[in-house]
Design brief:
Glycosyltransferase, 393 residues, Rossmann fold, 36% helix, 2 domains, glycosyltransferase activity, alpha/beta, seven-stranded parallel sheet, elongated, Glyco_trans_4-like_N, six-stranded parallel sheet
């Protein structure tokens, strides 16, 4: 199958990271893939990694709405490549991607403004909640779909040495230090949990405020700000308990990765974790923006090692069945075959779950990056959020 994936963002957030993983996985599975990406001169950046894996990404400026160079070159390149399906990732790419003799799919990882996708034949989101959002905003249900992300498998990684004193429960949180991630809530919860130590991996605009908050709460000696890290699997292997306190988390790749590593998960009940986690079975949920509730959930899991192990095992089993590379790649294949067979504006099979039968325009929304997602000429597509610039939603 011939597939063009168009990514107009130069950042490295959750959507950008999954774009890269999906391009590489589909190519390895025998699909013919054209990645169309924003220019990136970095010798170790995304575009360089795509080339190193044998792909030939087309680099374009993806500037403001008057960027006629990108529009012209993208149209020409797509006509030369002759894809069956073009997948436009996020607002910027969707605003540039042209109609043509292919099926145009808008791929969303957050509650974005659907006006950017008006040329698309189909929309696909990585949660069921996003599909419901599309339909609620007036998008035809037969052309609204859900296909999840696959997350990296971190089972069996050698553990990193987290800087927790002996005998303390080792908490780990990953993400961009941004208000949407709720790390201030986590620090306030930590102040209620004297036996726990937190390692927080990531960077972002809230670093100074979080450092000051930890000091004011008297927990600075039980918090380690690890900065930007690439060794996510090792960090997960080194912790006792993973926590995702996000105020906004459309998917929660970090939850999937923690499951893959066999770690128990406590999360705030934002959109993605609520959809993913079966409370008491594959993790625990706490009310959003509620330090006391989060502290209670953390204490319950930390205080019952047998239950924590059972939740970790159940989460890992869900990951392997539904969110590992092979099952998700198969769902993407079925989805793309379906919409390609249906053709432009004909709606494919009409089954919203990409052959599995699940059953207007919105304002600016929150995406996988945890930040506002706007189109060209305003703010770049969502900036990266994770310890290694990768986590999503």
């Amino acid at each position: 199958m011939r597939i063009a994936h168009v990514m107009g963002s130069g950042a490295q957030g959750g959507a950008e990271a999954f774009f890269e993983r999906l391009c590489l996985a589909q190519a390895a599975a025998g699909e013919t893939v054209l990645p169309v990406v924003r220019r990136d001169p970095a010798p170790d950046g995304r575009n360089a990694r795509l080339r190193a894996a044998g792909l030939d990404p087309l680099e374009l400026p993806f500037g403001n709405p008057l960027d006629l160079v990108t529009r012209l070159r993208l149209r020409q390149a797509l006509h030369r490549f002759a894809p069956e399906v073009v997948v436009a990732w996020q607002n910027r790419a969707a605003s540039f991607a042209p109609r043509g003799p292919w099926t145009l799919v808008g791929r969303l990882g957050g509650y974005y403004d659907l006006r950017y996708y008006r040329r698309c034949d189909h929309l696909v989101g990585n949660t069921r909640g996003l599909r419901e959002y599309f339909v609620a905003r007036g998008w035809p249900a037969a052309r609204a779909h859900h296909v999840p992300n696959f997350a990296n498998d971190f089972a069996g990684c050698a553990p990193a040495a987290l800087p927790a004193p002996p005998g303390m429960t080792r908490l780990l949180a990953l993400g961009r230090l941004h208000r949407n991630k709720g790390f201030d809530v986590l620090l306030r919860a930590l102040a209620l949990l004297p036996g726990l130590h937190l390692s927080l991996a990531g960077e972002g605009p809230e670093r100074g405020a979080l450092t000051a908050l930890a000091a004011s709460l008297g927990v600075a000696d039980r918090v380690a700000f690890l900065g930007w890290r690439e060794d996510t699997g090792a960090l997960l292997a080194g912790c006792d308990l993973f926590v995702c306190p996000s105020r906004h988390e459309p998917l929660g790749n970090v939850v999937l990765e923690a499951w893959s590593a066999g770690r128990p998960v406590v999360a705030a009940a934002s959109q993605g974790p609520t959809e993913l986690i079966e409370p008491g079975v594959t993790g625990r949920l706490a009310a959003v923006d509620d330090p006391a509730a989060l502290a209670a959930a953390l204490a319950a899991v930390a205080g019952d090692p047998a239950a924590a192990r059972a939740m970790a095992a159940a989460g890992q089993a869900v990951y392997r069945r539904h969110f590992a590379t092979a099952p998700v790649l198969a769902r993407w294949r079925r989805f793309l075959e379906d919409v390609a067979a249906g053709g432009a504006r004909r709606g494919g099979s009409g089954q919203g779950e990409s052959g599995q039968g699940e059953s207007g325009h919105g304002g600016i929304g929150l995406g996988e990056s945890g930040q506002d997602e706007r189109g060209p000429g305003t703010t770049p597509d969502g900036a990266g959020e994770s310890a290694r610039t990768e986590h999503a939603a």
